[in-house]
UniProtKB/TrEMBL annotation:
Protein name (database record): Aldehyde Dehydrogenase
Active site (UniProt): 279
UniProt keyword list: Oxidoreductase, Plasmid
InterPro entries cross-referenced by the UniProt entry: Ald_DH/histidinol_DH (IPR016161), Ald_DH_C (IPR016163), Ald_DH_CS_CYS (IPR016160), Ald_DH_CS_GLU (IPR029510), Ald_DH_N (IPR016162), Aldehyde_DH_dom (IPR015590)
Length: 518
């Protein structure tokens, strides 16, 4: 966890940074318990862990770590809430609750955004978008709930005249939600909104490395939603995550995380044939054609890989660059990245690149770069961790570009999850597309061209759940998001997600006095 992986130097943090961070953290409670059945309660195991400021190493809050027994209690509370209240509400009544919750989230958006910056190191320029996304998701799915009707299915053949057949969608009941540390509040909103709108109650596990904003979100939920509608059990994946994904009374699980985490959930869910939705890792190609505008494309490519400190599953981490503009574009890109992505205190409005989540992850990112160079890659830019003066040895890593990389090199195949871009030169379009698709992932992709025909035809050929053209990481509420291949199953952020939190029932009514011939 964050507390175990912090190896900074608190004594080397400047006084002005300390003061800024302590002031920002002042509204945070000193300790949080589990939130179950509308009450804050002690964990069955009683273990207390710390969440640390990513820069200063000071304790942001202590919190109770849950156990499998606590998941059982949360499921009991969620079942009771589903049967006695939430499951009995009309879709319009649920929508009213979601809109009230959206208002409450917006009222505390500044605090929630600041917490995510303090705990994860995401720049304060970016985290407010996550609070806005959560409120937007709640409002969007409130409207979806209001507009969903029963579906009639016309019968044909022998039953056409004498049977009335229709379908209706129903909630699963209790669902489990598991989220990662990168953008905790935004990831919670993407899952919570459709789950609640669809009529389910929730057992929720946030990542131990991005948990404090979720506690504050539960405090907001406590004032808005009926007791037991949402229950939060923080803890480790092997214990709490496993307990949720294998629980016989949780009928659906949705996870955002690594592909390995998704595989683990699938194995656990198989024990009782549980429905699952997975948003997993990526190794997304960003393809630059020779007619692309170099300046704007360089900005977009840089944002695609270095935004959110490079710690985002959709990161455009594989750059396919046409040979005609190869040298010129790399010069433009490196200059753009150096100008745009200044490393510094993530609470500073001028910072675009904050620290990685912890020092253990820093070691992992560094190892990928070192191995690539040993295997023959050229370090075109960056490639080293950085000690920023006054920031106490926080785990910063430079914006990095690796050239002379083969598509089957480890650094081009595995998700680095840091600000590391690999570059592959191309000339033949078909060969390039074959390489772009030659990955076990298929979450996102980018195309940079001024030619409309190229944009459409290449979009058709890319094996990815999202194709951005002349933009990147341009998320929009109401637009489906999800992956192909090992990047996941299911879609989020649009109406399809609502239906994925519901199951379909067919009702077949015989209107005659006789059985139909078979």
């Amino acid at each position: 966890m964050q507390s175990e992986n912090y190896r900074g130097e608190p004594d080397a943090v400047s006084e002005d940074v300390l003061e800024r961070h302590r002031e920002a953290a002042a509204p945070i409670q000193e300790r949080y318990d589990l939130y179950i059945g509308g009450e804050w309660s002690e964990s069955d195991g009683g273990d207390v862990v710390e969440s640390l400021d990513a820069i200063t190493g000071e304790t942001l809050a202590e919190y109770q770590q849950g156990t499998a027994a606590d998941v059982d209690r949360a499921v009991d509370a969620a079942e009771e809430a589903y049967r006695s209240e939430w499951g009995e509400l009309s879709s319009s009544e649920r929508a009213e609750y979601l809109e009230e919750l959206a208002d409450a989230i917006e009222e505390k958006a500044e605090l929630l955004s600041t917490i995510d910056t303090l705990e994860t190191g995401f720049p304060i320029l970016t985290t407010p978008a996550l609070a806005q996304q959560t409120a937007g998701q709640l409002r969007y799915f409130a409207s979806v709930a209001r507009s969903t009707d029963k579906g009639a299915v016309p019968s044909t053949g022998e039953m056409e005249k004498h049977h009335h057949i229709y379908t209706q969608e129903e909630p699963y009941g209790v669902v489990g939600l598991i989220t990662p540390w990168n953008g905790p509040l935004g990831n919670l909103g993407v899952k919570l909104a459709p789950a609640l709108a669809a009529g389910n109650t929730v057992v929720y596990k946030p990542s131990p490395r991005g948990v404090v904003s979720s506690f504050e979100a539960m405090d907001i939920i406590d004032d808005v939603l009926p007791d037991g509608t949402v229950n939060m059990v923080p803890g480790t994946g092997p214990e709490v995550g496993e307990a949720i994904s294998s629980h016989s009374r949780i009928r659906k699980v949705s996870l955002t995380g690594s592909t390995a985490a998704g595989q683990s959930v699938m194995k656990s869910a198989a024990s009782n044939i549980k429905a699952i939705s997975l948003e997993l890792g990526g190794k997304s190609p960003s393809i630059v054609f020779p007619d692309a505008d170099l300046e704007t494309t360089a900005q977009g490519v840089a944002m695609g890989i270095y935004g959110f400190n490079g710690q985002v599953c959709t990161a455009g981490s594989r750059l396919f660059l046409h040979e005609d503009i190869y040298d010129e574009f790399l010069e433009t890109l490196s200059a753009t990245a150096e100008q745009m992505f200044q490393m510094g205190d993530p609470l500073d409005d001028g910072t675009m690149l904050g620290p990685l989540i912890d020092h253990k992850h820093l070691d992992r990112v560094q190892s990928y770069v070192d191995e690539a160079v040993e295997d023959g890659a050229t370090l075109y830019m960056g490639g080293e961790s950085q000690d920023i003066e006054g920031l106490g040895g926080a785990p910063f890593f430079e914006p990095t570009i690796l050239t002379d990389v083969d598509n089957d090199d480890t650094v081009a195949c595995e998700e680095v999850f840091g600000p590391v871009l690999t570059v592959l030169k191309w000339s033949d379009r078909e060969e390039m597309l074959e390489l772009a698709n030659d990955t076990e992932y298929g979450l996102a992709s980018g195309i940079w061209t001024q030619d409309l025909q190229t944009a459409h035809t290449v979009s058709d050929e890319l094996e990815a759940g999202v194709v951005w053209v002349n933009c990147y990481n341009a998320f929009q509420t109401g637009v489906p998001h999800g992956g192909y291949k090992q990047s996941g199953a299911g879609r989020e952020m649009n109406r399809q997600a609502y239906h994925e939190y519901r199951q379909t029932k067919t009702v077949n009514i015989n209107l005659s006095d006789t059985w139909p011939r078979m």
